[in-house]
């Protein structure tokens, strides 16, 4: 599920590239990657700037432990893994500098130098493990929240979730194909050889896209103004509303039953009314919201400047081989004119290869996993998680929270 919605985010990132000129190649690459969710990947992520000051700005109490974690994220995280499909993936995360956490007592002093976390995703189920653990912690896909206290089976709920995902990706493919926003800050920087972690190399076209606050404001307004007249938007909204109303109806055996035709008619009427209201607003009050006004509104809230640079390296098959992203925003305390502005952001780099031939990995069997529910029923199973591993204290905290909630009548 994590990687699945990571793919969704990748598609939404396309909306930050437009499709004019050189950026059209980026659109083709993202659509191609959505259609080929099978590859190996490796990359890194790190915070930049002064994230500590962001905590102060939002009024958070000073917390040395949180500051230490932020500094560790500034040092960076290395990630690598394999995407088998939209439903199955493996991800390894490793801190570049675990010493920061160890020196503050947030990790055991006798732990190995690196701090590694393995995540496996399979059809909505997530499994987590560190090298210090003998079994995986299973985070079960509890779909019951969709139906509240209804009587839908887990299998039926999972099928509904699958349908929801299918509708979303179908919509993205249709929407992105006709997306026509014109972006000028896209440059073709020529051919670049990308060296792959497996020792190979690929010839790519390097497309660089730069966005600022005004460009993002123009993009937001374009998407908003496009929605009322875009058939893909209407169809997606109707289909999702039908799905949610079907879930609600099937989960309430005592409720009034509507036929599929009635549910569709109600959904279409609701969506039509919403889109008509949006169109009317855009033609009246919405006219006042120009890109310049939105930028002024950002500045009034303390966002002084914003820059996002995205570099795409695309091969001859129009598949993304490498993507880097650098984001920074300069903030000021709107309540304290004397306060000095500061900058926060992030930098990310990811390389993808082996499209259609991703490295396979085994999934854990029932005897290799322990869920939080099982740990709550049998605390002795906690021994499956190493005392010197950083996953153990997180599990103990979660179990403590569950125990504390029970007297209040809250079930975990």
Describe this structure in words.
With 412 residues, this protein is of the alpha+beta class. The protein has one domain (2-408). The protein is 41% helix and 25% strand. A hairpin with a 2-residue loop joins strand 4 and strand 5. The protein is globular, with a radius of gyration of 24 Å. The model is unreliable at 1-20, 144-149 and 408-412 (pLDDT under 50).
Short recap of the structure:
With 412 residues, the chain is α+β, with helices and mostly antiparallel strands. Helix content is 41%, strand content 25%. It contains 13 helices and twelve strands.
* Range of helix content: 40-55%
Number of DSSP helical runs: 13
* Contiguous runs where pLDDT drops below 50 for at least 5 residues: 1-20, 144-149, 408-412
Strand content: 25-35%
Order of helices and strands: HHEHHEEHEEEHHEEHHHHEEEEHH
Q: Order of strands across the biggest sheet?
A: 7-8-9-10-11-1-2-3-4-5-6-12
**Radius of gyration using CA atoms only:** 24 Å
Taking the sheet with the most strands, its summary is: 12 strands, mixed
Task: Categorize the overall geometry.
Answer: globular
Mean pLDDT: 84
Extended strand count:
12
| Tally of domains | 1
Distance between the termini: 21 Å
Structural class assignment:
alpha+beta
């Amino acid at each position: 599920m994590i990687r699945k919605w990571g793919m969704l985010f990748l598609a939404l990132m396309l909306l930050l590239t437009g499709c004019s000129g050189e950026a059209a190649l980026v659109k083709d690459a993202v659509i191609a990657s959505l259609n080929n969710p099978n590859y190996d990947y490796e990359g890194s992520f790190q915070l930049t700037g002064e994230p500590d000051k962001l905590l102060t700005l939002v009024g958070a109490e000073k917390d040395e432990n949180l500051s230490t974690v932020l500094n560790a994220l500034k040092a960076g995280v290395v990630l690598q893994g394999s995407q088998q499909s939209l439903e199955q993936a493996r991800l390894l995360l490793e801190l570049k500098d675990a010493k920061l956490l160890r020196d503050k007592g947030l990790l055991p002093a006798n732990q190995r130098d690196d701090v590694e976390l393995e995540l496996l995703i399979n059809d909505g189920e997530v499994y987590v493990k560190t090298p210090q653990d003998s079994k995986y912690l299973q985070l079960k896909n509890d779909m019951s929240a969709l139906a509240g206290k209804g009587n839908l089976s887990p299998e039926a709920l999972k099928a509904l979730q699958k349908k929801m995902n299918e509708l979303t990706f179908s919509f993205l493919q249709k929407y992105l194909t006709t997306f026509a926003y014109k972006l000028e800050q896209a440059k073709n920087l020529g051919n670049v050889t990308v060296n792959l972690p497996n020792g190979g190399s690929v010839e790519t076209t390097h497309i660089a896209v730069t966005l600022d606050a005004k460009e993002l404001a123009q993009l937001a307004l374009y998407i908003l103004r496009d929605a009322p007249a875009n058939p893909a938007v209407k169809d997606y909204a109707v289909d999702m509303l039908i799905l949610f109303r079907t879930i609600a109806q099937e989960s309430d055996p005592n409720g009034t039953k509507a036929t599929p035709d009635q549910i569709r008619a109600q959904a279409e009427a609701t969506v039509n009314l919403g889109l008509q209201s949006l169109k009317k607003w855009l033609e009246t009050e919405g006219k006042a919201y120009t890109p310049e006004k939105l930028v002024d509104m950002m500045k009034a809230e303390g966002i002084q400047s914003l820059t996002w640079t995205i570099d795409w390296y695309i091969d001859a098959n129009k598949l993304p081989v490498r993507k880097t992203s650098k984001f920074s925003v300069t903030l000021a305390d709107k309540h304290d004119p004397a306060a000095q502005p500061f900058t926060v952001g992030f930098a990310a780099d990811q390389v993808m290869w082996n499209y259609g031939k991703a490295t396979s990995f085994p999934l854990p069997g029932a005897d290799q996993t322990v869920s939080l529910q099982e740990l709550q029923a049998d605390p002795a199973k906690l021994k499956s998680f190493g005392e010197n591993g950083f996953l153990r204290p997180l599990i103990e905290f979660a179990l403590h929270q569950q125990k504390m909630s029970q007297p209040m009548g809250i079930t975990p």
